[in-house]
Each structure stands twice: as C-alpha cells, then as structure tokens.
Amino acid sequence: MKTFCGRANPTTGSMEWFEEGEDYDYHQEIARSRYADMLHDKDRNVKYYQGIRAAVSRVKERGEKAIVLDIGTGTGLLSMMAASAGADFCYAIEVFKPMANAAVKIVEKNGFSDKIKVINKHSTEVTVGPDGDMQCRANILVTELFDTELIGEGALPTYEHAHKYLVQEGCEAVPHRATVYVQLVESRRMWSWKKLFPVHVEAEDGEKILVPPSEMENCPGVPSVCDIQLNQMPSSDFSILSDVVTMFSVDFSKPVQSASTYYRVQLEPVKSGKAQIVLSWWDIDMDPLGMINCTMAPYWVKPTSALQWRDHWMQCVYFLPREEPVLQGEKLYLTACRDEYSVWYNLQKAREGENKADEEEHKADVGVESPVCRCRAHLLWNRPRFGELNDQNRTRQYIKALRKVLETDSVCLCISDGSLLPVLAHYLGAKQVFTLENSGVSCSVMEKFLKANNLEDKIKIIEARPELLKPSHLENKKVSVLVGEPFFTTSLLPWHNLYFWYARTAVSTHLASSVTVLPQSASLHVMIVEFQDLWRIRSPCGTCEGFDVQTMDDMIKDSLNFRESKEAEPHPLWEYPCKSLSDTQEVLTFDFTKTVPQHCLSTEGSLKLLRRGKSHGAVLWMEYHLTADISVSTGLVQISNEKGNCEWNPHCKQAVYFFSSVIESEILSDPTAVTYAINFDTKTGEIAMDFKLL
Fold first, then answer.
1. How far apart are CA 566 and CA 134, in angstroms?
2. pTM (2 decimals)?
C-alpha cells in the first residue's frame, strides 16, 4: 500500500503531495498524536478505571464471566484495567497498525497476554464465533472513541454496529452515558471568526466603508467544529445569555442510532442581547448511577472544582446561521441537528400564544441539512483568518503604512491570498491596483468583494502564478508599489508566509527600478518559555495508573527523531499559557527589497535565561516591517507582568520547538543559557534549528 503525505512548500506557496516508501510507519502521525496527552489525563484515567472495576463487579455478581470488548484500544490501557479488575477475557480492537503493534508489546510487557487479544481491524470487520476474531459476544463494552464534539470520530456508527453484532443485549458499558450541554452567548470576538465586519477607511475624499457581499453576510459557514480551550477565553470576551441546558444524551448500554436526527430545547434568555454563539461541551458518566463523572465544563460552570487540563477533549464554539436579537425572559427554541459525525444549531423564537400543534409545526421548519458555505470565503479563510481581517488595530497599521508609500501615480500590485490590501490601496489613492490571486477560490471571493463595493473596474484581478505573470496582465505598466500582508492559505508555520519573497523574486522583471516593497523586510524572533501545560503533549508517561506504557513513549520519541528531523510545530499560543524565561531575540532578517539569495541564511547565538523555570522549549514567530517604523508581529504581543506571562497574537499560530529534555523527561537543574543554530535553506524555504541547554 502506498502512503501519500502532504507538505506545504514555502517556495511555491502550494501543498505538495509525495509518496512515502514501504518503511513509512506514520511517523508524523505518531509524533504529533495526542496519545501522550491522553495518558497524562489523570482525571480521565482514574475515572475509566473506577467505571471498569464497577462494571466487572456487577457482571461477576450476576455469576457471569466478564468478557470485555475494548474498541479503539490505543495503548491497550483500558483492556489492562479490565484484566486487572478481574475480567476473564478482553478483546482489544485497534485499526491503526503501528498502534496495534505497540498495544501487543505493552500488553505482553505488563503480563496480560493470556487475558487480552489485540485485533488489528476496524470494529465493523470483527467476526464472532468459534472460528471468529471473538469466541463469543462480550458483556462489557469499553470504548474511548470521543473527540471534542463527542461524535466526530464516528462513535455513533461504531456503537450502533457493536450493539448489533459484537455485544450481548443488556451489556454493561463504560462509559455508560454521555450528555451534551449548551449555553447561548453573545461575543464579538467569537462572532468575528465567522463573518467579516465592515472596514472603515479615512480617505482623502471622506470616509469609505468596505462592506462584505450579502452572500457572505447570510452564509452559514463551514460545518467543521470550532474546538478551542475555552478556559483561556476571558469572561470579558463574551456575555452569557442563557443558563446551561442539557441538549441531548446517549445511553451507550442500549442500542444506539446513528441516523441523522435533531433535538430541541426551550430556552429563556437570562439577559437581553444578540444571540450569536452556542458554546457546548459534554460529560460522561462511567456508571449507571452517574456517581463517576468526567466533565469538560469550562471554568465559569464549575468554578469550585479543580480543572483537569487536556488537549484531546476541549470545548466547542458553534456559530448560529445569523445573529438573533433576544429579550430577557422571552421563549426560544434551540435545535441541535446532527448527522453521524457532526452537530449544528438553529435558534427560533416561539410564536405568541403557541400551543402543542404549533410546536409540531415548528419542528417541521427544522432543516436537517448540514451547513454548507455558499459564499466560498469560508473555504478561503479559516476562522483565525476571519479574526485577523476583522482586527481593526492591525488594519490601521496597514493603512498607516500604505499612506506613507502611495503616490497619486502609484501602480500597485498585491500578492496575498484574498487580502483586503488592494481595496485599501485603491481607497488611499493609488492610480492603479492589480491583485495576483493564486486560486480560483480567492479569485471568486475577490470578485464578489469588488462587486459589492462597486470596484470591479477599479481593481484588476489576475489569476496567475507569479512566475507566469506577463506584461499584458499589468497593461504593460511597471509596478511602483508591491504589497503583501503577507498571508497565504497553505502556510502552516510562521515562516511559510515568506512565500511572498519568492513571489517577489518571480515578478522582479515587472517591477520599476525604484519600486517600494511593503513590507520592506521580515525578521524571525525567538524566546525560551516554560509552558503551564502544553509540554504534556510531548512528555513521556512511563507508567499510567500502574501500567508500564514506556513502549508508547519510545514510539513517540522515535517518531519525533525520525530522519533526524526534529521540527518546530504550530500551536495557537493564546490557548496555551506560558511564561518567558529569556528576552526575545531577533535571529534572522529577510530583505524583501532584494530577491531571494542563492545561499542559505544561517545564524548562531545564545539566549540568557533571566527567570527560574523549566525550559520546555523555544517559541518562534515572524515580524513584518511594513515601513521603517511600522511593524506587525505574528507572535508575542507583550510580556504582561514581572512573572513573565506572555500575551500572543490570537490570529496566528506560533512555532514551538520542544527541547529534547521534555521528550526525554530529564529537566536540567537550572540551566543558565540556551544556544541556538538556525539555518534558512533558500532552496526549500524551510528552517532547520537546533538548541542546547547550558
């Protein structure tokens, strides 16, 4: 079987797919997996263990043998819990081959090979009978198939099939049930991730307002869930409009239906406001009585209990199809529609003097169609990008910089994916504006934008790759001002937007000799940090609830060191608190006024550690110098106090390079400095780095 892997190529601005050899053992997938995070989730593990012990005892008390089916066993942890709780036999199912191999080793190392059979299949392919994978049906069903949305990893169809073919009627299930909760809120910040707000520009001839096309205004967006660490969202960024309500629950001990359906609850706002967002999370009861409960509730819901940090289960943000003004105390209906894998929401007002018959009629209005983006902007821009485009302070910096460089005779070319810069340049007086769009999607979004603002004849869209730009595209004019944010949809790491430099190099024959490039340069910055929690996703576990899982640690470690390529990984650090242990340092600069050099750019140096703490890793980000005195940062906004707590740009992912001391779990006692060697390969556009703690 061939495996194809995708990688962003910063020199071409596109995703490239390449074929991996037979030896490819899904190293990236394992290295970046959340297995370590789950093994560190003490609350989850303890409660699963309690639930499993209780289920095994209930079966034994009935005088039956305890036969366990564990679907999606991963490391084999839950099966080992069941075996040590006295289960007679466990069938552990794992479809991912490298993981199934690891589970076999872990089970053997812990001495459970006679009690646990690992089956490397999808559960729907497992056979039961004398010659089957399982000798008989199980009477205890144990699974951990949940994601932040509960059902996104296919839990419902898996349970549905298991009840039909793999477990006995009236079986015990751990967890026993899951319940989904919702709360209605108003939040300009979260709403700015779904729709574009009008942009105000002070031009020579008065204020101009750039409005989004009506198609975008009414678009439901994309159905994929927006999952975030809601515990990092300050209470000042949203306003609660309703109490927490139970939306629906699923009893896993009985047959489960995965067919599309909907649930409806009545709500009365506790406060008047604009209903925009449904916040949602779930909890699981490990036992029928609900005595063993594991919850994802955010900080304001359970303020007394200590919050368990976890990254594999977070909270969901759902965007209502449109903003609804609501009044305190009025009667509303909130509907959750779901298919096998996802959930979406609708809000309706109850009609005056409504009776049961009207309510039935209301139900008929509910479309169980999954939301689909019709305006295409949600296909071009992800949610953080919407937030970035709506950031007025950021837009002001670009306006200020454009004012400095534009003349009345400027011929302006913009290179970025679906950017508002061409419109700003036109409003600020450029004589002619061209925008180079890399894809059909960005072209169509830009066309709609120009049309909505009557600018079709003022700004010319060119759908071409930079190296294929012809003089005729530019009406045989030379470009006097080249602009970019820069932003490209394929960028994963901060320096991937350096594609702007490659594009600038490709179009250099079309530039006037006195061309102004905005931004004029970029710089790469680095800082050493201690994470409050994020380090756990890369930290070895050793033992988990008394079971030796080192095989898993080694597997992750080997995958991280695969082909000697320890790499930085992207994380939105506003969701992951950390404190700085060093000053920030500018390590490389990229001069956009010149073309990309043939030779590599390298640097070495050291960072002095100023605060005590655990050096978990380095954070890297880019700053773009729009003009000599105006810069925008994609990383650190400020260090907010003497403890070193960091505030990060909320619209961008920063690059995190975890030190091997985290991966090896040997934290040095009080290092004094960190040395670095960083190399930017101009042929590939990639940055290689190495850090050493002194």
1. 41
2. 0.95
In angstroms, the Cα distances linking 293 to 288, 306, 316 are 10, 14, 19
Residue 666 bears catalytic tag: no
Q: Of residues 94, 144, 437, 485, which has the active-site annotation?
A: 144
Per-residue pLDDT tens over the stretch 108-156: 999 999 999 999 999 999 999 999 999 999 999 999 999 999 999 999 9
Amino acid sitting at position 86: G
| 61 membership: H or E segment, kind and range | helix 42-61
Provide the greatest CA pair distance for the chain: 90
pLDDT in tens, 354-372: 665 555 555 555 555 788 9
338 Cβ neighbours under 8 A, 6+ residues apart: 151, 260, 261, 262, 263, 344
Which region, left, alpha or beta, applies to residue 561 given φ > 0 means left and ψ of -120 to 50 means alpha?
alpha
Distance separating alpha carbons of residues 254 and 426, to the nearest angstrom: 63
**Cβ-based neighbours of 429, under 8 Å, separated by 6 or more:** 203, 204, 406, 407, 408, 410
φ, ψ for residue 559, nearest 5 deg: -65, -35
Which member of 20, 29, 108, 153 is catalytic? Answer: 153
User: Known catalytic residue: 407?
Assistant: no
Residues counted in the chain:
694
Residue pair 499/491 in contact (Cβ under 8 Å)? The answer is yes
**What does the block give as tokens for 693?**
């703690």
Alpha helices in 64-175 (DSSP H): 77-84, 97-109, 155-165
- Three-class DSSP category at 612: coil
CB 443 within 8 A of CB 419: no
DSSP string across 3-31: EEEEEEETTTTEEEEEEE-TT---HHHHH
Residue 183 · residue 278 · CB < 8 Å: yes
